[in-house]
Amino acid sequence: MSTEVPSRSTPDASDLSPSSAAETKKYKVIGTRPIRHDGADKVTGKARYTSDVLLPNMAYGALVRSPYAHARIVSIDTSEAEAMPGVLATMTSADLPDPWDKVENLGEGCINYAHLSGNVLARGKALYKGHAVAAVCATNAHLAEEAAAKIKVEYEPLPAVTWVLDAMKEDAPLLHDNLVTQALGEESARPSNIGAHIHFEQGDLEAGWAAADVIVEREFKTSSIHQGYIEPHVSIAMWNEDGRLKIWTGTQGSFVVRQQMAELLKIPVSQVLVIPCEIGGGFGGKIAVYEQPVAAVLSRKCGRPVKIAMRRDEVFEATGPTPGSYMRVKLGATKDGKLTAGEAWLAYDAGAFPGGVIGPGCMCVFSCYDIPNAVVDGYDVVANKPKVQAYRAPGSTHAAFACESVIDELALELKIDPLDFRLKNAVQEGSRRVDGPVYPRIGLIETLEAVRDSQHWNSPLEGPNRGRGIACGFWFNAGLQSSVTAAVNPDGTVSMSEGSTDIGGTRASIAMQLAETLGIAATDVQPQVVDTDSIGYTDVTGGSRVTFATGLAAYQAGLDIQKQMVRRAAELWECDVDQVTVEDGVYRYGDAALSFKELAVKLNNAGDPIVGRASVSPQVSTNAFGAHIVDVEVDPETGKVTILRYTAVQDAGKAIHPSYVEGQMQGGAAQGIGWALNEEYFYDDEGVMRNASFLDYRIPTAFDLPMIETIIVEVPNPDHPYGVRGVGEVPIVPPPAALAIAIHRATGCRMHELPMSPPHVWRAMQDR
Amino acid sequence: MIEFEYAAPTDLDEAIGLFAQAGDRATLLAGGTDIIVQLREGLRRADLVIDVKKIPELSQFEYAPETGLRLGASVPCWQIYENESIAAAYPALADAVRIIGGWQIQSRASVGGNLCNASPAADSIPALIALGAVAHLAGPGGRRAVPVAEFCTGPGKNVLQSGELLVALTLPPAHAGSGSAYQRFIPRNEMDIAVVGAGSWVQLDESRQRIAAARIALAAVGPTPRQAVQAAEFLCGKEPTEENLHEAGELAKQVATPISDMRGPAEYRTHLVGVLTRRTLAAAVERAGTFQP
Predict the structure, then answer these.
(1) CB-based contact, B175 to chain A, within 8 Å
(2) Mean of per-residue pLDDT scores for chain B
(3) How many CB atoms neighbour CB A752 within 10 A?
(4) Does A713 reside within a domain?
(5) For chain A, what is the domain count?
(6) What's the CATH code of the domain at A587?
(7) What pLDDT, on a 0 to 100 scale, did the predictor assign at position A10?
(8) Given CB atoms, is B103 within the 8 Å cutoff of chain A?
(9) What is the CATH number of the domain that holds A86?
């Protein structure tokens, strides 16, 4: 087992040393921290977001949204709006082609186009407050908004249901008359709000309970949470007279936007061009389309480009979120601390349409522990809420909150140190997850050892009302399809084109892998995220896959360039190809030696230009594990939790650009902390969200977080030439559980519900 | 948001004339940090927006230890906490304006506007009430003065009549041995609206050992800011011991009739009234011990 010594970053910004593994592997570029290629544009405000795009003669669209959580749409009258000066076109779902049931995997979950179309504009019924019902476009945004208010929609309100367990009841109001439960290949006889029942098992559960000396079972609840990206959804559509549709949008996947547009509008993909703009945060919430098809149809109707920008309340009420959940987890272990059995019963709401994130929730719930006998049941349940979308390790954070809380309680019951208990039961190479896969080489044990050896874990925590917690988290990380092309320039630099939209510094991490492969500096690669006409198919930026898979494509494109350079060097030196050697970017034949740059200059104007290309589709998970340590202080009078210190530890496989790995770990932890402490969709009895603004939907601000310390562990991924594992998602998983455990140590109260907001913590302290 | 007319009169009478003529179709703009948001979000409609910042009397900002503070209705928040002697004389007000929004908001938003907006959760109002502030109004019928404690009549509602506007706030002089404090409870540490707010003012006696007079006002516990009169009276003549301040907090809870909403359940808000009343009284007493005008 080759365990790299973890490199450690501290709040001290002067620590810019490359990770230690880079020294052992003798990388020149990987593991260093060059300035990001898009940095200057970003910090000077020149980067182009969709809002910045202004086209000649552009019109502005606005949506009419349901004021009811559940209502039959009796009639829609657009005549008054259409009569207003400046109004150019209106539309309803009748202007979209009839959808058909077709399910497709968009990389971070499957999508049914009938449902997607019905989510874009309601058909027959509005299924949640904020569900788009009609749209209008006008010569300016204010007029469009006024015109939207003039579209008369008659509703027949219906009973609504927002809590997952209520939606599962026999007598619950049904959202879809034709939805039946899919369970183990069977369909239920009666319609139901339960779209699917998932069941996993391994071993002999009864024998597992029998072998246990201690068993703990607890139930947990969590509220719906939004991804909270700062940039609202904004798109421009221009449907030309020649039939070609151009879309400018901030998206996690320009090719999946192209695919969705083609399916929803029933036009060939070749008729759609998607131009990805910079993106102000996505976190899984900018994969499905919302306003894009509406803008497209309005554009076709009025003959102008149409821009639609959502307001913040629209973003909260109609996009995202991640589900509210009810979970029951039961674990048993022997006196000497070996887990013998586990059972989980999970119900996640999917929002208004089936197909939420219960699947990964079920796969992740026991993913950190070797539990020989286990059963997991999961339910995908529709409710009168916006359609659930992916959010950073979708489904895993809920499950970890439940599982890790029970793990902690079990350890205390057994009087075993909770960290030792985790180490004793941690999954490793060869462990089988409850849903089947057997892990290849993974780094959970090394991650927990890094926790054990960390300065934070070994520092004293003194004073009243204070406590420390730890928790683990897992995310699979995807492979999927990626394409890269790279052209060698006459000055020896390389222009690289890729299709992965950059939501987390991936221009840098992909360019650095190409630079490492070619033996040139990171600054000598100029990465560009290009449109869907300019690069081969590339899946979403999601599943923590881009640095791994698009990075792999960049590596292979580099090898392609190198092969061509060797051939050309052989021509130059009049020798056989296999007589040319390449090491660290230096091409040699006998005494002759030329660097990549020197060779590129010599090859200029001689022969074919050199262009490398590669496309990949790795079908593997890269399996990331993290563990977080948190110290809190709880105000005994108000229940308010102050985070004193926070450390995120994670196996990154190999950190290409350590600063961005740390940034992902910090960002994920910050979002997990928000989820844990204050974020929630606050619904009233009518199913209306009462806090659809950043004022009352409380994501943490800089005043609410300490500097989040990071420790990168590097257990190389055997499926990648540089050992990369995905890093972006797993850091959101441990925080709620770690904080619940820390609050328990500080107050003696077990928190079984998220968010652990001041009134909830205060209530728990009153009841103790 | 649709188009509206904009006027920026430089004379008080002109402003009153415009405002009286337009009636409900007009709205006043000082810092605009509430009005512009309300117009944009469709919570308020106006055909005419009258900017009052160019009226000299509304920008008046005068302080003298002997006469107290005169605060024009459009004076932005930052001017209060940036002025050391005002912040020392009226610390509760300084506490409040330091936490109204971020500094961008504080550069525009006025205390007068915060009062006229009459939010039950407004931060400056309990501080003003605790400090004994008076609102000076002018309208078609002439001028009148109303104690801030009587200014708000409901959420977003106040005593201003049609065509009447707030000209200035006056605060009585702060004497030696007086102190005040405002605190709010919010789940985060910034950028939030009070779950409960409490402003307390105390005047210690000559010995500085006993409380001679006190005022306590609360935010977000009812449709308007509330004064906890009984709690304040209880403290008169008493030493500011922990028990007495705690008892004042318990008495203050009796005036709280909060609702349950996304900012907190009623039961929790009532509990916070006790905590914040005690904490602000303790802070006010500590400040009173050292204050010299």
Answers:
(1) no
(2) 96
(3) 18
(4) no
(5) 2
(6) 3.30.365.10
(7) 41
(8) no
(9) 3.90.1170.50
Q: How many CB atoms lie under 10 A from the CB of residue A607?
A: 12
Q: Which of A657, A672, A661 is nearest to A712 (CA)?
A: A661
Q: Which two tokens stand for residue B204?
A: 């210690």
Contact call for A698 and B189, based on CB within 8 A? no
Provide, as residue numbers in chain A, all residues whose Cβ is less than 8 Å from the Cβ of B3: 142
Contact A678 B189 (CB under 8 A): no
Q: Is the ipTM of this complex over 0.85?
A: yes
Q: B187 to chain A: which residues are within 8 Å by CB?
A: 640, 677-678, 698, 757-758
Check CB contact of B193 with chain A, cutoff 8 Å.
yes
pLDDT tens digits, one per residue of A30-62: 999 999 999 999 999 999 999 999 999 999 999
Strands A641-651, A624-634: pairing is: antiparallel
Mean pLDDT, range A657-668, rounded to an integer:
97
How far CA A101 is from CA of A263, A264, A318, A413, B29, in Å, comes to: 11, 11, 22, 50, 54
In chain A, the residue whose alpha carbon lies closest to the alpha carbon of B193 is A695
* Beta bridge mates, B217: B199, B227
Mean pLDDT of A192-219: 97
CATH 3.30.43.10 assigned to domain B5-51? The reply is: yes
Closest residue to B262, CB basis, from A696, A700, A762: A696
Strands A373-382 and A339-351 turn out to be: parallel
Residue A167, in any domain of the structure = no
Which band of pLDDT confidence, cut at 50, 70 and 90, is reported for residue A21?
very low
Whether residue A759 and residue B189 make contact (CB cut-off 8 A), yes or no, is no
Mutate to test the interface with B, among A689, A693, A762, A767 (most CBs of B within 10 A): A762
Report whether pLDDT(A15) > 50: no
Q: List the Cα angle A63/A68/A73 in 5-degree steps.
A: 70
CB contact under 8 A, B272 and A763: no
pLDDT in tens, A554-566: 999 999 999 999 9
A303-317, A628-642, A695-709, B36-50: the lowest-pLDDT one = B36-50
Domain definitions of chain B by residue range: 5-51, 56-171, 178-288
pLDDT band per the 50, 70, 90 thresholds, residue A105: confident
What tokens appear for A156 in the block? Answer: 């027949």
What class does CATH assign to B178-288?
A: alpha beta
Model pLDDT, residue A25: 64
A728 domain-assigned: no
- Nearest by CB: B189 against A145, A690, A703: A703
Task: For residue A152, tell me if it sits in a domain.
Answer: yes
What DSSP string runs through B115-159?
A: HHHT-TT-SHHHHHHHTT-EEEEEETTEEEEEEGGGTEEETTEES
Q: Which of A596, A616, A636 is the last residue of a domain?
A: A616
- CA of B121, closest CA in chain A: separation in Å? 13
pLDDT in tens, B162-173: 999 999 999 999
Instruction: Quote the domain boundaries for residue A119.
Output: 50-158+233-309
Residue of B nearest to A757 (CA): B187
> What average pLDDT does the segment A157-169 reach?
98
Domain B56-171 has CATH 3.30.390.10: no
Are B191 and A690 within 8 A, CB to CB? no
Domain boundary among A309, A336, A355: A309
Check whether A269 has a pLDDT greater than 80.
Answer: yes
> Is A170 exposed, middle or buried, given 0-12, 13-18 or 19+ CB atoms closer than 10 A?
exposed
Give me the count of residues in chain B.
Answer: 293
d(CA B192, CA B189): 8
Minimal Cα distance from A313: which residue of B?
B41
Tokens of A664: 């992902």
